[in-house]
Sequence to fold (1006 residues):
Amino acid sequence: MEPTPEQSPHHAYPDHWEADVVLRDGGTARIRPITTDDAERLVSFYEQVSDESKYYRFFAPYPRLSDRDVHRFTHHDYVDRVGLAVTIGGEFIGTVRYDRIDDTGRPASAPADEAEVAFLVQDAHQGRGVASALLEHIAAVARERGIRRFAAEVLPANNKMIKVFRDGGYTQRRSFEDGSVHLTLDLEPTEKSLAVQRGREQRAEARSVQRLLAPGSVAVIGTGRTPGGVGRTVLRNLLAAGYTGRTYAVNRAFDEGLATLDGVPAHRSLGEIDEQVDLAVIAVPAHRVPEAVADCGEHGVQGLVVLSAGYAERGAEGRELQRELVRQARSYGMRIIGPNAFGIINTAETVRLNASLAPESPARGRIGLFTQSGAIGIALLSGLHRRGAGLSSFISAGNRADVSGNDFLQYSFEDPDTDVALLYLESLGNPRKFTRLARRTAAVKPVVVVKGARHSGTNPPGHAVPVSRIPDTTVSALMRQAGVIRVDTVTEMVDAGILLAGQPLPAGPRVAILGNSESLGLLTYDACLAEGLRPRPPVDLTTAASPQDFRDALAEALADGTCDAVIVTAIPWVGENGEAETGDGQVLAEALTKAVAGGAAKPVAVVHVEIGGLAEALAAASSTAAPRPRTAAPRTVSPEAGADRAAATAPEATKDRAGTTAPATAAARTGPTAPGTATATPALGTPTSEAPASGTPTSGTPADATADPEAPPRPGRIPAYPAAERAVRALAEAVKYAQWRRQAAVPGKIPEFLDDTIDEAGAAALIEAQLATAPDPRGRPLTHDEARELLGRYGIDVRSTLPAPDPEAAVAAAARLGYPVALKTTAPHLRHRADLGGVRLDVADEEALRRAYGELTDLLGKPAELLPVVQAMAPRGVDTVVRASIDAAAGAILSFGLAGAPSELLGDTAHRLVPATDRDAAELIRSIRAAPVLFGWRGSAPVDTAALEELLLRLSRLVDDHPEVVSVALEPVVVAPQGLTVLGASVRLAPPPARSDVGPRRLPNY
Fold:
């Protein structure tokens, strides 16, 4: 909306207050400022409000608005008087207004910081969360305009409005005066108000996806009159899947006499359909989509799946078409999957929806799948289908103009039919929100992600999201911090998914290996060591082992409290006649599933070579049988042993397959594997072995990582893999995820001692003063002394340096600091480059200092170029680097590594999101590959890691408290056996980048 000349010339129309929001029932609405053009809309809105609601608003019968009222409610200065409206289809469904007041309650201007607020919501839309959304947005507007408190008068009988204020989470005071309830709300966000806001966001966005996936009726718009074509294909797939709702075929080109098509009612428009249509699948050319969307909006359709192409993937014109499509759909309260989408699937027995181009609907299972690519979606569906794995839901979002991976996480979090969420993403439109949602979801069920476009940094067509400048390794580390299982390929994602959906989490890294091939067992053993697992020596059942021997050995391993997971390796066994058999996969599968059914809840994976039907049988078999007594006597194989000694009785071909060509694999809760080879589908209604952490939903969550090994087993299906290495990598990921789950159950904290040694207000004043003098609006770097002062406010002491522009100044500085000293250059091209000879340490006296000064200038250049300084020597220790920076997309990041070229060259740096907890700080310094250097490597003295962790926490707190601190580098930080010394620091200040994860709820606008 544009302002009119009647509005205040001093305050332009604040278009940044406009926002699309998701309401409680999953529908969308538009919130925007009210303008003078809204007079007719306001009158029409008021006429549709009940007399009771009008009475609650004005405390008296008020049947209609006077011209004066209309003028007052539509004329605002957007500072002292502000009105917001919620619109659907361009019409008002709710309004809110504030008027700034003074201490006596009379109209006022700034600096008065209190305002009177009043709401009115159309009765037909009450209960949809309209007032709650308006409160969030009007509070944000008020804070922006310097208002700190809202005052409201509410009649005691107006329980709904009282509840809106009470449940908002703001600090409030309440009194009863003159027959009404007087409420005062402090508008400063609190932990409770933020939790309330995010809880509402989660429920609303989850509901919006649920409405798309479980519609009561579906209309396919653009259904062809002849077989073939996109629309007709979707209609056929809907019918083939056995969709339980009502289905309609819609095409404006249908003959008037056509009543049915493929057995479903055929119509020329939605207006001809007498019943409510919940979901419309649009398969018409792009230029006809606006007409179809308008038809849907005017007839109450709740959501759209737009299969049509010709949008942002076609260039600038297409991008604008895509944005207009989103604006049009949201104006009617509808959400969109697409455009250029492949479709959606819901296998729930009560729905059976296949509104996609997938010719076969997948089996019902416990895996939820989201992909931004139709081609990847086809590959994933095909791979899961080949391996007998089932899905709970599937969304292929195409250009992802509206519904995103974040929405899918919101839905998956509370979906009782989903145990594992798999996502193929090419961008993170709101990385801060993604990590927040992923962390919460991963605490109750695994989240497996493949990130495409890792190096190109591309976004979905039509998106203008911030591009992260951090390397892909950092993105991966931050995902790990949030509990996300990140794998490199869609093949690995499928393998991880089928294991996670069918097997419990491992309680630790100890792995038992058993099978009838010594060589395959040794390959598995080596792979476990390479992945950081703790394998036990393989148990060789010999090639003469029968399915019963496998069952008994597996039962024994599951009962053994010294192992946390089992990998079964199998090659064709030798029959009674001495000939190698291809093996009856069904028999072996039954034996293994019976052993699992009677054993402890531990993950089991099978690595097999040339055993026909085994993978298929394992996928189909459910672990329900009880174990039988052990009859075989296996032998333990030394990992140092050579080739398959036991295979001497088998034909050479069998030995070769097991000992030389069989790749190694192991199954895991989160690791990488390849589709088409592993098979694992969970039984429906699978229970968990342990309840999740308090406060989290219990429905549909996987077994907790802390599961008791002796607890009753979780029925499931055993995944099978053709290569040991892949399975072991998967199991290693499962171990890491299980460990994260255990730690997440008791979150870290920020030590209280920091509060006593931090001057937040003093730091804020310094930052404000420095930015006020910055000539560049992009900010400025601080000088050494300025950085020392700012860091000192947070208890970070930087050792002082004194300039040495000539030898005499160097001698004077050393005399002031006391020998021994260090002489070093600070020129940008030489800073922190001891390898170039720009540093002289342990300079013991004046003579040595003059000599060192001459060497530096002779070797590297004039003092004016080198900018030499003198610094007192620090205690000997390990040189490290601590950094913090703000990334436009990912947010504030804390980093740690050892100083020097080797660490930089190898990328041996660890990262955590800010704010960091005590656990984050401890993990940060232990997660680099060179961490042993800090803990007494090769007999050296361990350094003071507690002091290093405290430094990390202090820097994290500084960046979190003051987002204007966009970059900090402490280099080097010398960590000694007792204490540490920060020898160098650089700080850059700048106006903080806009954050998309704070403020009132709103859908992204691309």
About this structure: The first helix runs from residue 39 to 47. The CA atoms of residues 682 and 757 lie 53 Å apart.
